[in-house]
Amino acid sequence: MENQSEKEGIVELPRVWTPEARWGIQTPSGEAVFLFPAFGPGNYKDVVRQVLASEQRLPTGEQTAHFLGEVYTSSDERVKKSPRIDFVKKKVINDGWLWVNNLNIWTPKNIQNPGVYVIPDEKGLGLDNQITIVELEDMLSGGNTERGVRRSENRQIAFAPLSTIKSGYHNKETLQHDGTFIANYGVEGAEKLGEVSNLFARKSYSWIVDNNSNGLIKSLSALDWYWYLVDSRLIAYFNSDGGRRGYVISVSGLGSNAEAGT
Asked: Tell me, what's the pLDDT at 9?
């Protein structure tokens, strides 16, 4: 008589993500410890679900911008020669894209003060987040304004008026002062991405939502590059529906046992 194991044959077990390397990066909010390997490629919902199921954190937009800044501008020879950094440049940015864990909520253009609200997607809800404008405005009360962009007191929530936003081509200066970049990455983060954009042959380009409807439109953010022959540029998406295959480099929580170094 066959036992149960003979009936089942060989059963593949699900792959368990295990951190192999860590990289501490200083940001205005403190050190962020990024862990390798990357999660992905996949659509936004699947990739962030993998990150959270592995008990890791999704990086903020500010952390992501400083991470990418170090990837491209670090003077540390160990970083420059690291296969982890080579993977980010060639597989994540060149062949795929880097998910930025923010939710953009675009108001109709026909209201009195149109623009985009940006909130961090800590729980991985993505486009399923049902937060209301009333709730967002309540969170923004008591905050301040930086380069025309309103920020909550804890700096987590932002609103960029449409008047501060420029779709299309950017040089370093226009990128650093653009409302969608500041709302997604913070002032210092936008400056980091401006430095990165200068390393490419052509001006960077941003895609935004042109909301001519009477309702709100939600979108996600991502970063990659465009290249053709000698033409290359940084591309910033603020209009993603989450469907393309991208990556997330997670940020560790307390007690990570990843080995130091990259």
From this structure: 82
